[in-house]
């Protein structure tokens, strides 16, 4: 029970931003946590976690499951630091933080099959979003109102976005999100002063640039990963920078789910043609023009039925944003 179950993920998100180094540091921290779980004083903690996982109902709503997991972690952490000698000795802030991160990963890695993409609706949304983003492969920076950027930094962010689905622990996934978003921040800092015809980048370009990188990365199961992060990262740790970047990721996901011609300021006919061509290229086919009719805002009956009130705004506008979970752990509840 104290092993890593074959996971190759890191542990906490506290030191994200150093790419492979941060992943390796977190992996080492989690390995130490698992070693501490072998101490006799930690046996009741392992038993509590095992009982919680075995008896967890996978049929409850995501909101109820999130609340149940957060309550258990809050109570388990309190017991861990007060009753388990091996963890009570972790008196410094860094030690306690690593232990809390380790417990979250230990529990959620085992709960993963019961809480991640467990219903048909999530799986359908993942497949639909992945297919739609594939059709948007032609979208360039200018379609999102972004001036030319240093492309040398983009592969790193794209790689991190694609890696999110490789991990099970919320903290591990957060590391990937933070690393990719910090690349966006680095790009924004590189303003263009030599050419007066090109405007410098600003904070308003953060969301459009993240959207662009998501299109190029097309991360597997983006919908489920974003919802999982917002639901199962403990509220006491989904704060500050972590909360902002997860919120922005969810906002980018929502924008892309319905993005049509209006979002990229291109004529519907051009959008349809490029969308179909991108899908055909991905499928290895010569002609899949009929796919365009299924694209949000595409040609045909769907376009004629689209109402002006639902026109998609540009990402620099007022995109709908998910609110992150409230800061601070929920109040302890009765014993699970």
Automatic annotation (TrEMBL):
<dbReference type="GO" id="GO:0031267">
    <property type="term" value="F:small GTPase binding"/>
</dbReference>
<dbReference type="GO" id="GO:0030139">
    <property type="term" value="C:endocytic vesicle"/>
</dbReference>
<dbReference type="GO" id="GO:0005085">
    <property type="term" value="F:guanyl-nucleotide exchange factor activity"/>
</dbReference>
<dbReference type="Pfam" id="PF02204">
    <property type="entry name" value="VPS9"/>
</dbReference>
<protein>
    <recommendedName>
        <fullName>VPS9 domain-containing protein</fullName>
    </recommendedName>
</protein>
<feature type="region of interest" description="Disordered">
    <location>
        <begin position="289"/>
        <end position="336"/>
    </location>
</feature>
<dbReference type="GO" id="GO:0005829">
    <property type="term" value="C:cytosol"/>
</dbReference>
<dbReference type="GO" id="GO:0016192">
    <property type="term" value="P:vesicle-mediated transport"/>
</dbReference>
<feature type="compositionally biased region" description="Pro residues">
    <location>
        <begin position="326"/>
        <end position="336"/>
    </location>
</feature>
<dbReference type="InterPro" id="IPR003123">
    <property type="entry name" value="VPS9"/>
</dbReference>
<dbReference type="InterPro" id="IPR037191">
    <property type="entry name" value="VPS9_dom_sf"/>
</dbReference>
<feature type="region of interest" description="Disordered">
    <location>
        <begin position="1"/>
        <end position="25"/>
    </location>
</feature>
<dbReference type="InterPro" id="IPR045046">
    <property type="entry name" value="Vps9-like"/>
</dbReference>
<feature type="domain" description="VPS9">
    <location>
        <begin position="123"/>
        <end position="265"/>
    </location>
</feature>
């Amino acid at each position: 029970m104290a092993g890593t179950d074959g996971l190759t993920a890191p542990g906490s998100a506290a030191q994200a931003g150093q790419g492979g180094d941060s992943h390796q540091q977190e992996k080492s921290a989690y390995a130490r946590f698992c070693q501490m779980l072998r101490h006799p004083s930690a046996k009741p903690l392992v038993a509590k976690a095992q009982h919680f996982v075995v008896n967890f109902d996978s049929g409850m709503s995501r909101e109820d499951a999130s609340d149940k997991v957060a309550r258990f972690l809050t109570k388990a952490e309190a017991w861990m630091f007060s009753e388990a000698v091996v963890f009570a000795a972790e008196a410094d802030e860094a030690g306690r933080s690593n232990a809390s991160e380790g417990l979250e990963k230990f529990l959620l890695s085992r709960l993963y099959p019961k809480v991640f993409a467990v219903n048909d609706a999530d799986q359908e949304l993942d497949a639909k979003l992945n297919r739609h983003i594939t059709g948007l492969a032609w979208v360039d920076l200018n379609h999102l109102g972004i001036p030319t950027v240093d492309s040398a930094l983009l592969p790193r962010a794209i790689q991190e976005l694609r890696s999110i689905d490789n991990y099970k622990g919320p903290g591990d996934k957060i590391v990937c999100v933070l690393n990719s978003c910090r690349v966006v921040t680095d790009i924004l800092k590189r303003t263009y002063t030599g050419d007066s015809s090109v405007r410098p980048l600003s904070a308003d370009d953060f969301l459009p640039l993240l959207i662009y990188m998501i299109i190029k990365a097309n991360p597997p199961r983006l919908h489920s990963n974003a919802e999982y992060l917002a639901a199962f990262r403990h509220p006491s740790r989904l704060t500050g920078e972590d909360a902002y970047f997860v919120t922005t990721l969810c906002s980018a996901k929502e924008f892309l789910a319905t993005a049509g011609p209006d979002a990229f300021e291109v004529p519907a006919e051009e959008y349809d043609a490029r969308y179909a061509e991108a899908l055909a290229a991905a499928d290895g086919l010569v002609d899949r023009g009929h796919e365009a009719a299924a694209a949000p805002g595409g040609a045909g009956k769907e376009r004629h039925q689209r109402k002006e009130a639902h026109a998609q705004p540009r990402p620099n506008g007022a995109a709908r944003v998910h609110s992150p979970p409230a800061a601070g752990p929920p109040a302890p509840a009765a014993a699970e």
